[in-house]
């Protein structure tokens, strides 16, 4: 009887041991993914989830270094040919080997995902063929020289033609059935808009991950995220509310991690249509012409935004005034141009010059729960507009709804952001005239088109000489600034807060909240 009792206790301890020893990281994340399909929506909150389960050929780390993932190396053989050596040690979670043909399968799928708010087409736009040389070597043939190839190959993650083919559906990723990748974590469970659970992939070829299990809890309300951290319900939160940072910094239980980001917020006006859905006169009657199609009106809107006051008062220094359509420090941005002017009197004069001395009504759309104080930022912009005679109303929407409707051109002007280490990639994706075949303007939701921008951009996208590419990129940027095709607002600073006894977080310039950037203390 004693031996039986001892054996029972030993078995119970052994059974409980691994579970008790597990390291679990619970993250309070602001924005849930719009889908788990890794090619459905090219946005930060989707990509940070996808890259836990799936992998791209390369990955950019926090120091802007290209780290090998499913590729070990890449080199140009000539201006139109790149040789890629593949990581043949990689396996999908069910044991299926990663193979060269999977790259071709993935690149063919990327432009075809239906109903996507923003495809990854631009990343594969220049590739005319994927040639398999042997099991570990492929050649990427391009239609034209592509100086952004290394950045592009760090973008879409790779699927398996055997697991995911021939025509994977977004719904099958959301259900979990096709959430099978080569990444450091395996999919366990997903409840849309609520939580996602991942488990460490013990067969991953890379370094052992510190977390056995990761739970994302999606908490859009800023105050609720902080409350969850204070109550010990989560170990780490992203998008720390600006007003809560001093409190958390003064509490020895928590650590706040901050970094200058590569994220800039901008307004996208409907400059290309003769009429626009959310613009009327002061009495609510339709206008005979779309005022946003007039450059003077767009400049007036820019002049009405008190960027420095917003950065100082609304963000308490956790933002800076944006001066162009590129993040501070981005490759080939314009230097020495000075801040964008704030001049409400000049704004009123421009409206009168354009034929709107009494102003007009305008609805400004934007996200709620996409980045810190986004709803308050919309209100601050609307107040600036009202002071030059534009009666501005604000309507906020959940991010997934906002981007779907923006893609359908439902808005007169909307607010969003972009993150990039370069100036050329945002111009290619957001500003260039939309071309589905080439992937240009994938995020150009207002269908902006300007030959003075497109001309130098088209040349920059094939310029392998860096100095020439810089000059062409800057020429396109100047033309965009002059035309006010998009209106820069602020540059964001990123912040996370975590329990000191549980996690140390390496802050991410593109604002990724990932377990790979979180480490246990000590």
TrEMBL record:
InterPro entries in the cross-refs: Peptide/Ni-bd, SBP_5, SBP_5_dom
Protein location: Periplasm
One Gene Ontology cellular component annotation held by this UniProt entry: ATP-binding cassette (ABC) transporter complex
Keywords noted in UniProt: Signal
GO molecular function, one term: peptide transmembrane transporter activity
Main location: periplasm
Keyword Signal: yes
CDD domains given in the database record: PBP2_NikA_DppA_OppA_like_2
GO biological process, one term: peptide transport
Annotated SUPFAM superfamilies: Periplasmic binding protein-like II
Source organism superkingdom: Bacteria
A Pfam family of this chain: SBP_bac_5
Keyword Membrane: no
Annotated Solute-binding protein family domain residues: 66-420
Family label: Belongs to the bacterial solute-binding protein 5 family.
Protein name: ABC transporter substrate-binding protein
